[in-house]
Amino acid sequence: MRRTPASSVPLPPDAKGVPRNDWATLRTLFPYLWVYKWRVLAALAALIGAKMANVGVPLVLKRLIDQLAIDPKDPHALLVLPLGALVAYGLLRLSTTVFTELREFLFARVTQRAVRTIALKVFRHLHALSLRFHLNRQTGGMTRDIERGTRGVNSLISYSLFNVLPTLVEITLVLGYLVLNYDIWFSAITAVALASYIAFTVIVTEWRTHFRRTMNELDSKANTKAIDSLLNYETVKYFGNEEYEAKRYDQGLQSYENAAVRSQTSLSFLNTGQSLIIATAVTLILWRATEGVIAGTMTLGDLVLVNSFMIQLYIPLNFLGVIYREIKQSLADMERLFSLLDQNREVADSAGAQPLVTRGAQVEFSHVEFSYEAKRQILFDVDFSIPAGTTTAVVGHSGSGKSTLSRLLFRFYEVNGGAIRIDGQDLRAITQASLRAAIGIVPQDTVLFNDSIEYNIAYGRPGASHEDIVAAARAASIHDFIESLPDGYQTMVGERGLKLSGGEKQRVAIARTLLKNPAILIFDEATSALDSKSEQAIQAQLKEIAKDRTTLVIAHRLSTIADAQQIIVLDHGRIVERGTHQSLLAARGLYQQMWERQLARPDEELASPPLEIAK
Q: Is the pTM of this model over 0.70?
């Protein structure tokens, strides 16, 4: 079974690619809205009611003026008919507001739930993507894309359903009334103005869209540089490169500034052209209406009516330009958000995947072959097993493929050939959730969440009681240290756990793993970054928690694995030796050479080739 070559794996969203089609983005969004279809339909009904009431206002105003002009000497006409028209006018105005607020009330849940659902789906999807994707991504740019995308969803829903549709309804009602009741010129001028306005808006906005995309890309790049620099704060200070980092960040800001200026300049051109079209149309309408009044074919009420219609259309039409721009900008913002959902899961559960059932947790690597890149193979025919309840250590020079074994056991990647089994169950036939629930790891570089010590220990089993957390901390010999802190278990560890020393972080990692209580343990060079005293203390804890568990130890200090039941020696991805510590020394091969080198230089790592980077 061959894995998809690295060259065919989808690029992260930071990579250049073909923009999503706007209709594809809308099709992706629509199902999230249709979950509340009855609310959507009720909101649309309220929307139409609001616009019908709004169009009715000029009709009442026309009747009011015409009644006043019929017989101003009749006191009853002045007292009764205008009063009725005024009441109707007020009710229509009120109805417009009531229907509008009712629409907002009905649709509020739809909008917020859609934004929440999409954001949660993207978040879950990111966690489901392969390690390859996350090694390639840029955190700062990606988080900015998610932020803008979720905001774009809210804007798109609001603008498209609450502005475009009601404006079209109002335009249809107005044009219909003008065609039925007045000279064809009124509807012709209005229709031509609308067509010209919409065409001009669409053409110019399409031209402007690439400015927005450029701004997004430059904004993401600048943000990525800023976050990357702050995450590496100590390195910046070590080399005194604060000004260098500031200049790099300012270069990004300057590029964004230039793109923003071009965007604003094109916006001014768009606004000016829209105003010219509307002003011309209003002037022509009033000219025709004035001629009609002079000729006696129209009343003053008719003149006020068509003028009111044009004023009412002018406001949403002017806003329609803004709306269209915002919709296009929202779609541009959403492109990168939905592109994250388009990323294929490189490793997914098979259709008939079953939960892992452990019966001692024997681990077997059966003729495993693997490569991060199609042209560069990392593991060649790796074949060994770890009997249940025993410890197997893997040693070798950097780049020999040691850490790759742990990644494959966690199924972060699929093997190219062969199989990995636990108690005879192929990893590809079991669910990833049950697999990872059965494995615990103490890594070389323990990264903690920027939260309390208790939260970080409890991460091994969310929902664990405080008593269980304390018991795990005692077993990891860190309870006394935690109790000595002013805030005890509520002490904040800082970003990535930087407020704790290396040994303290490793003990938190051990406590976290103990709380998880896995059947299989992986120690991935868990003490290589510590000094000798800290290493000896922590090594004792590691041996204690490894009792009666199937354990894979990836090590570079051979003294720490001398009592392992089995030692595997890797060289350039191949198993070249295997056996116990004593048997390997007696064989006088590569292991014995590494042992003698470390005796001569106890602190020397088994460094030879550079570390393999997963791509």
A: no
